[in-house]
Amino acid sequence: IAAELLLTWGQPAQAWSVFEPTLSDSDAQGSLRRFADLAGTLTTPEAHRVRGLALTRWADLVPWPLAARARAEAVRELLEAGDRVAARHVLEGLATDSTAPTDAHSVAQSALLQVLIADGGVQLDVAEKQLADPNTRLSADDRAALRLALARARIARGELDRATAALGDDSSVTAVAQRGWIALYRGELKGAMESFRLAGPYATDRAAATDRTAMMALLQRIQQESSPELGSALLTLARGDSTSAVAGLRHAAGRLPVQAGRLEVLLLAGQVAAHLGGEHDVTAVALFDEIVRAGGEGAAPPAAELDWARLLVRAGRSGEAIPHLEHLILTYPSSAVVPEARRELERAKGAIPKS
Questions:
Q1: Distance between alpha carbon 293 and the CA centroid of its chain, in Å?
Q2: What residues contact 341, with CB distance under 8 A and at least 6 apart?
Q3: SS3 sequence of the chain
Q4: Are 2 and 18 contacting, i.e. CB atoms less than 8 angstroms apart?
Q5: What pTM value is reported for the model?
């Protein structure tokens, strides 16, 4: 009763600490089920966690297939709570349970590998070994999805050779697209472009397709077949080190001709700096200014001037943004960003109080 009251009061952790010592009672099965159901009415991470713990204990007391469903539900709850260690423990038990049905084994092993890959670090080696084991029971689709996830995790660690190995002989468009990114991070620009074209514009989800299309637009401006400096900078960006990526992109841009890739790479550097904000705004403005002054027929100058104006508006300097937007609209009337510039101009003018 005390545990149920604590749940009602929204204190799941305290409720579990009170409830767990009573599980030796003869009514443990019913009590666990009731506790799990009550915890399910709460939505906090701690509530998800104690519900997962309760379902795990309940699964030990009931027959298949109830136990299999309970453990699967427990794993979902524990993952929702962010407790991957407990979720992995449940999955390991399910994956090695000789009494579990074959389909339950497959689901458990797939989920376990997802957790291992998400954990990263040394767990990636464990996942890699299990994926390579022919005795690991996985559907073809699950195996392919896990190989892709492992490849992305390897990229996040800068391990490009192991990322390539993780994809194996997968010839799907998703794998082809991923190989394109690996080639790009190695600085193999021609190979990256070929893979992106082979994958097509609709491979993977919409966000990934958009990123790939944007990168293809940048690569089309570069005449060189390779650029280790650009590949390294883009890998740094992919790994989440945006500050270092800005410096790397500026360095890579300096090795490219002004009208053959330099401005596009500088634009990306400026956009990353602007996204960082704060003290990086100064860097972003300097980059946008350099691009606008260079001009030319490419898409980078009008895009840079639009981003510059947006940065000024964000800083509360709408009056300074207006000349940039008007210059963009008059100088590059056929640019694809003109409609956005017109909307920004209307907003900027509206932000200036009438005297």
A1: 35
A2: 302, 305, 306, 309, 325, 328, 329, 335
A3: CHHHHHHHCCCHHHHHHHHHHHCCCCCHHHHHHHHHHHHCCCCCHHHHHHHHHHHHHHHCCCCCCHHHHHHHHHHHHHHHHCCHHHHHHHHHHHHCCCCCCHHHHHHHHHHHHHHHHHHCCCHHHHHHHHHHCCCCCCCHHHHHHHHHHHHHHHHHCCCHHHHHHHHCCCCCHHHHHHHHHHHHHCCCHHHHHHHHHHHCCCCCCHHHHHHHHHHHHHHHCCCCCCCHHHHHHHHHHHCCCHHHHHHHHHHHHCCCCHHHHHHHHHHHHHHHHHHHCHHHHHHHHHHHHHHHHHCCCCCHHHHHHHHHHHHHHHCCCHHHHHHHHHHHHHHCCCCCCHHHHHHHHHHHHHCCCCC
A4: yes
A5: 0.79
Measured distance CA(44)–CA(34) in Å, rounded: 18
Amino acid identity, position 82: G
Residue 193 to residue 215: CA distance in whole angstroms: 9
The distance in angstroms from the start CA to the end CA of the chain is 68
Q: Report the pLDDT value the prediction gives residue 92, as an integer from 0 to 100.
A: 78
Tell me how far apart the alpha carbons of residues 47 and 55 are, in angstroms, rounded to a whole number: 12
Residue whose entry in the numeric block shows the structure tokens 């992995």: 88
Residues 247, 285: Cα–Cα separation, whole Å: 14
What gap in Å lies between CA 306 and CA 308, rounded to an integer?
5
Q: What is the distance, to the nearest Å, from the Cα of residue 116 to the centroid of all Cα atoms in its chain?
A: 16
Q: What is the mean pLDDT of each run of 10 residues along the chain (355 residues)?
A: 85 91 78 92 92 92 82 85 86 71 74 86 93 85 92 97 95 94 98 94 81 94 96 97 98 95 97 97 98 93 98 95 97 96 94 61
